[in-house]
Specification:
about 190 residues, 12 strands, elongated
């Protein structure tokens, strides 16, 4: 794949040249690729991806019908995803990522802090923190608060725990379309 900018020979071209080269426009760039090859019947994985993409388009259409949601996605526009609709589709197709659970300041006392770093291609909408006992029962849980940098979340402990040996912290991030991801850290 080649990206062409400001070349008068191919500027604005779109379509197929012969049966080998395809030109398409993305923003102010002309993309040049080889012709896609279709071998007939879709595989099970391809059918699943097509179904997921159909759901993503339906989600994006719903978001574009809501003026507040459309405006929120419009704020994230860039050259690659040049419309709010495209951003909403990409948001539906991607899941958040919990990158780090920082328990240095957590000693099992009420008021101790657990910091979690979570990111998403659009935004993380909420982050649930659970402190689990060794037998995986919940000792405490609650929503973390997003920090000003928009990637860190802080959970403040509400239950005193005498000894943390064998306990685990599970952080579960959720994005706007409802995709989730989690990470576990053993204390």
């Amino acid at each position: 794949m080649a990206r062409v900018k400001k070349n008068i020979l191919v500027q604005g071209l779109s379509g197929m040249l012969g049966k080998t080269i395809v030109f398409r426009q993305v923003g102010d760039e002309t993309i040049v690729t080889s012709r896609p090859v279709h071998n007939g019947k879709a595989t099970v994985k391809q059918k699943a991806q097509q179904a997921k993409f159909t759901q993503a388009v339906q989600y994006a259409n719903g978001q574009m019908a809501d003026p507040a949601a459309k405006a929120e996605y419009a704020l994230a526009k860039d050259k690659l995803f040049d419309t709010s609709f495209n951003i909403a589709v990409a948001d539906f197709l991607g899941s958040p990522n919990v990158q780090e659970i920082d328990t240095i300041a957590y000693k099992g006392k009420v008021g101790d802090k657990i910091r979690v770093r979570a990111v998403d291609d659009f935004k993380v909408a909420s982050l649930l923190v659970q402190v689990l006992k060794a037998d995986n029962t919940v000792a405490e849980q609650g929503q973390a608060v997003q920090q000003a940098n928009k990637i860190d979340w802080v959970y403040t402990a509400t239950t005193a725990i005498a000894t943390l040996t064998g306990f685990k912290v599970v952080a579960s991030a959720k994005d706007k379309p409802g995709n989730t991801a989690s990470q576990t850290k053993t204390l």
